[in-house]
Write a structure and sequence with these properties.
1 helix
């Protein structure tokens, strides 16, 4: 083996290990970055879904409140009509007895 070939072999061996370590470290960093990005993406998705859920709950609560108010108003009108009808019947009955 010539001295040039020996030094070439030695250089390949040294750089081969360095390249392998660099690839291993780079691959590990890329894998960690991908996992982190995926985790943050999932976290952002969950946050968005939480905000949408809260907005839907608020909308439903407002609708229920409006429905309760509408029902209460309707019941008040029904009670007023019943009292008016009762008073009218009572007046008619009283007039019938006095005649």
């Amino acid at each position: 083996m010539t001295p040039e070939a020996g030094s070439l072999l030695q250089a390949v061996q040294h750089h081969g290990i360095t390249a392998a370590l660099t690839a291993l470290i780079g691959g590990t960093i890329a894998l960690i970055a991908a996992i982190t990005r995926k985790a943050f993406t999932n976290e952002a998705l969950l946050d968005r879904l939480d905000r949408e859920l809260i907005a839907d709950r608020d909308r439903i609560d407002r609708q229920r409140s409006e429905d309760r108010k509408t029902d209460g108003d309707r019941l008040d009108r029904i009670e007023t009509d019943i009292r008016s009808m009762r008073d009218m019947l009572f007046d008619a009955f009283q007039r019938g007895r006095s005649d």
